[in-house]
Amino acid sequence: MAIELQPKTSALVVIDLQKGIVGLQGAPYATTDVVVRVAQLAKAFRETGGFVVLVNVGSRDGQDMLRPITDASVPSSFTRPPDFADLVAEVDVQSTDHLITKHQWGAFFGTDLDLQLRRRGIETIVLCGIATNIGVETTAREAYQHNYQQIFVSDAMTGLSAVEHEHTLKYIFPRIGRIRTTEQILAAL
Known about the structure:
Layout: E1 10-15, H1 19-22, H2 31-47, E2 51-57, E3 98-102, H3 113-119, E4 124-130, H4 132-145, E5 149-158, H5 162-176, E6 178-180, H6 182-188
Parallel strand pairs: 1-2, 1-4, 2-3, 4-5, 5-6
Helix pairs in contact: 4-5
């Protein structure tokens, strides 16, 4: 289904396209393919006057990281390389982009994302990145609670497994926004 996007009231929000995460194995899409699609989207948004927000996750000293007690095994000895939080070169960071470092899964909590979107009159968020069911989904739920319209770019995001990616696309995103492809978003700009 075709959509119409107003670049002046729309923002592309890119989650965690950083060296330490893009190096992970993605599914159903390879992270390298996601990076290529996101680079196309970012370029198109910039050319049409849309707002581009690039989000990474990081910590200076690890003291601000969450440490919940969980049933899932998380390696306690994981050491992040010095460039873990660096955005990948392919996104071609521009001076007009807004950069956000988050310290948990979602891009709204503890950041100025909502403030910056509202100051610019943004009504619609086009969301993409890695991982679909973690950083992207958490940010989407937060955006929903902030009353933003959302479009999820299904082929410009990937999960750590195809099952996780598909679950979010099938059960969560249709309830809080619209799902489109990179090609459909580019055509709408």
